[in-house]
Structure formats: structure tokens, C-alpha cells
Amino acid sequence: MIRGNWFTAVEQGEAAAKSILGLDFKYEGSLKHNITNIFGSEVAVVGYNREDAPLTYAYFNPKTGIYRRVFLDEKERLIGATLIGETNESGLYYYLVKTRARIPGGKLNRTLNYAKMLRALDFK
């Protein structure tokens, strides 16, 4: 499937360059990662963001307008996230989805900075 966004273009460009150079690598495909501005609010979606995900956790801070929703599989591994209000950490969510990081109890959705996010992870 062809996905039209910058992150995918960079991944596919790197894959093409490695292929041209004859390097041994495996391209595992693209992961959805879109960021946009809707009616004055930043919105980012990463990975799988559907209601039928096995586990979902949401968090909203009415003072800041920041909303987070994380989507987990049966083993509590992150498979997707929706971020509204502040999207600077969407790259970290992208990495966590791509590596299938385990997020017991959806702890990640309440943390709003990188250090807290990393401390909340279960690297086992």
C-alpha cells in the first residue's frame, strides 16, 4: 500500500538508497504517522487507531486541552496513539509502536514529557 506522507517518503527513500548501494536490508513496510492542524488544534495519529483495538486508554487535561488515547494489543503492547493539543512527542510514540513497547495499564497516556514516558515503560 502506498501512503502519502513525509515519514513514509523518508523510509522509502532510505530503502531505495540501500537497494541501489546493494546493501543487505529488509524493508518492513510503512507505519501510519500523520500530523495536521484541525480547527486550530494539533492532531497526530500513529499506528492502529480503531475502536476494535483490544485495549484503549484515554486521558484529557481540561486546563491544557491535551488529549491522549493509546491503543494496546492483548499483551499490552502499544499498537497506536492519538494525540490532540500537543504533538511534539509523536515521534516517540511512533518508535514505541514500531518496537511494540509494552505499556502495562496504559500508563503512557497520562505522561506528557519524554522522561516520564520512558520511566513508564516496561522493557522486559
**Which architecture of the largest domain per CATH?**
2-Layer Sandwich
**How do the strands of the widest beta sheet line up side by side?**
1-2-5-4-3
Under CATH, the topology of the largest domain can be stated as: Enolase-like, domain 1
Distance between the termini: 33 Å
Question: Number of domains in the coordinates?
Answer: 2
Residue windows where pLDDT falls under 50 for at least 5 positions: none
* Strand tally: 5
- Give the oligomeric state: single chain
> What can be said about the biggest beta sheet?
5 strands, antiparallel
Structural class: alpha+beta
CATH class of the largest domain: Alpha Beta
Computed CA radius of gyration, to the nearest angstrom: 16 Å
Order of helices and strands: HEEEEEHH
Average of pLDDT? 82
Keywords:
124 residues, alpha+beta, Enolase-like, domain 1, 2 domains, 3 helices, globular
Description:
The structure is a single chain. The chain is 25% helix and 27% strand. It has 124 residues and is of the alpha+beta class. Strands 1-2-5-4-3 form a five-stranded antiparallel beta sheet, covered by helices on one side. The mean pLDDT is 82. It is built from three helices and five strands. A hairpin with a 2-residue loop joins β1 and β2. The protein is globular and about 50 Å long. It folds into two domains: 30 residues, no CATH class; 90 residues, 2-Layer Sandwich (Enolase-like, domain 1), CATH 3.30.390.
